[in-house]
Structures are given as C-alpha cells and as structure tokens.
Amino acid sequence: MSDPLFILSIVCAFLVLMAAGFHIHSILLGIGVMGLVLIQDFNIAAAFLRSDPFGQIASYALTTIPLYVIMAQFILKSGVVQDAFVMVYKASKGKPTVLGSMTVVIGGFLGAVSGSGAATSASLGSVAVPELRNYGFRPDLAGAIAAASGSLSGIIPPSIILILYGVITETPISDLFMAAMIPGVLTMLVFVGCVIVMHRNGSESSIDVASSPELKIGARRAITVVAVGIFMFTLIFGGIYLGLVTPTEAGAIGALGAFVTALVLGKVDRTFMVSSVRDTAVVTGMIVLILIGAAIFGRFVSFSLLPRRILSMIEFLIQYPSIVLIILAIAFFFLFMFIEGTAVILMALPVVLPVIEQAGIDVLWFGVFIAVICTLGLITPPVGLSVYSAAGTSGVPASKIFRPATKMAIAVAVFVCGAMILFPELATWLPSTISR
C-alpha cells in the first residue's frame, strides 16, 4: 500500500467510525487492534492488550488528574463560582464594560482552579449571563463571555491538556504549568479587549438594571472566597515555581483545601460527597479509557512506521520549521473543532512528535502552543463544548453564541499565537527560572 493511500485509509477509518457514533476511546482501540492484526498477527495484538493498558495508566504523573478533577468538583459544588461572580458584580458598580471584563478575568481563574472549561462555562451561563444582559450586553455576547471565560481552563494551569502532554512527551508538568502562565494571561487580556470592543460597537439600547435581582453575599462567604482564590493561586503557581511542592502534591493539597472550603460554607452532605466522587470517577474513567485506546493505537502507529511515512512525505519541508508549524497548527485546530481535547492530544502526539523533533521545534513551547489552540477549539463551531455548556444553562442558542465567540477565537489566534511564534520566550523564559 502506498504511503499516501495508507495514511488516507487511517483517516477515512476515523471519519467513518466517528460518523457511526462510536466513542473516541473505542475508535482508537479498534483501529489499533485491527492495524496490529493486519501488520503483524493476532498474537502480537493480544500480547499488547495484556500488558499495555496497565502500563499506560499505572503512572505516578497521572495521579494529578483525579486530584485536580475532584478539587474542581468540590469548588463548583460549594458555590464558590456563584459567590465570586456576585463579588465581581458588586465591584463593577454597574459599569457594563468593567463587569464584562472582570467576568472574563474571574472566569479564567475559576476555570484554572476547577480545571473544567465546560463546567465553568455552565456555571457562568446560569449566573453571569442574566446579569450581563441586564446591563446592556447582547444575549449572544453575554453567552460568548461565559464560554470564553471557561475555555481558558485549556491554557491556564492546572490544565488536563498540559498534564497529558507532559506524560506523553515526558516533559516536566511543572515546566509546562509555568510555561503556560504568560500565554494564558495574554489570552485572557485578548478576550477582555474583544469584550470591550464588541460591547461598545453593539450594546443593547435598553438597560434594565432595575429588574436585576439584588445579589447579596455575606462577609464570611466573601472572605472565604477570597481566601480560597489566594490559597489556590499561591499553592499551584507559587508552590510549584519555588519548588516547594510537585504538581501532584499541589493537587492533593488543593483538593483538601477545596473540601475544607465546602465544609466551612456548609455545603458538605451525603449528596455533595456522592455527586463529587461520582463525577470525578466519570471524568477520570473517560480519560483512562482514552489512554488505554491511545496506548494500543500508539503501538499500531509504531509498527506501521506512520511517523516515518509522514516524515518522508514532508521531508522537503523539514528545513522550514515555520511551514511545518503552520501545517500542524491548522491540523490540530481542526481536530480540536471536532474531537474532545484530551483525545486529540493522546491520538495525535504519537504521530506528530517525531515530526516536531525532526523540525527542531521546542517540545515545551509546542505543548503550550497546542494548549492555546485547544482553548480556541472550545469556543469554535461545530463542537465548541464551552459554547454548548453556556448555551444550555443560559437559554441563549448556541448558534448565536458562536458568532462573537468565533471572533474572539480569531483574535486570540492572531495576537497570542502570533506573539508566541515571534517571541518563543513568552513560553520558555519562566520555566528556566524555576527553583529545582
């Protein structure tokens, strides 16, 4: 089978199985097993099925995932997201652009703490969107603000995308977290700029502030919310940067801190614990299944010499890293538009990692670059998980939210991705200063 035909057949198999409604972990596992049987024999496939699943998930680095996920569940179910928005609402003193901008900022940090873009977008969709609309924001822009704020969880640590990237490429997760700081803040600032410009160019003519319900938050809850934010930021970023804790230890302490917060706020009961543990098990189980499927698919990729085939096809481009980077960026963007982010990382990296290394692209920098692109995929049609989450809780149709959200995604692609290409130090400088 010729190389282009071989690659095309794999792509077609993915498309057919996805169109048939199969889950991504089933697709990776199915193509991996069938590919191994065709290239070698069934005994080889059976041997890998006996050893690879356990070997893939029995990794200390992966313990960060359930820790950060359960921390997210405790934070979200304790009501801290709603309380934080009430504080933003009060601090803005009724100024629409200030309210919109602060919603992006607080939403970004909440997404970082929770680690779940869809969950944060859903929370902001129910709490922030009605108030933004009362202050003159169009429904579509209000929904886009909620979606964009949640999507920042893809780039601002602790990002599951960055954790999985570090595991696969054997890049220190602490380095990835620090490398994502500056690009993450830049992405947030671009979103803020988009909110200000789009609101001024098309705000609602009538502002119904009087109909806005009075939002109240007690002094104890306000102090608790602020203390949690400072604690999480100091622990996750300061502790890792100073070398006081590892990312796994930060996740464990953060989960404990989130649980104590919920306890102080009086949210802990049987329902709270059961739903938190159940949702954590569901998310972690999904990621584990994808990891197992990706492990077998990776074996197939290795035996098929697919990376070598791709390298031979683009050998004439390897000496032009910028062109290779553009091609990879476009490919990843389209994948993130259709497929869940963790699946894209696990599915595509075994194929493209040799290409990245051959082209001389810094692996640490590329991980952050891909995380930014993942953020764009969360608010870009046709999938846009953050958009659908915000739409589901706000009542604003996703088709309307996609319009301003896509404009915000384009702005980030131009300014943040462009800045990272022109100035790679935006991602590589901070990790070089970490205390070891």
Task: Give an overview of the whole structure.
This protein has helices at 3-19, 24-39, 42-57, 64-77, 80-92, 96-114, 117-134, 139-151, 160-169, 173-179, 181-202, 219-241, 247-264, 270-304, 306-313, 321-338, 341-358, 363-377, 385-394, 398-422, 425-428. It is an all-alpha fold and 436 residues long. It has one domain. The protein is globular and about 65 Å long.
Features:
globular
Helix amount, in percent?
over 70%
Distance from first to last alpha carbon: 49 Å
Poorly predicted sequence stretches spanning 5 or more consecutive residues? 204-213
Average pLDDT number: 80
In what range is the share of β-strand residues?
under 5%
Task: Return the domain count.
Answer: 1
Mind describing the biggest β-sheet? Answer: none
The SSE string, one letter per element, is HHHHHHHHHHHHHHHHHHHHH
Shape call: globular
How many β-strand runs?
0
* Alpha-carbon Rg, integer: 22 Å
User: What structural class should be given to the helix and strand makeup?
Assistant: mainly alpha
Output the number of helix runs.
21
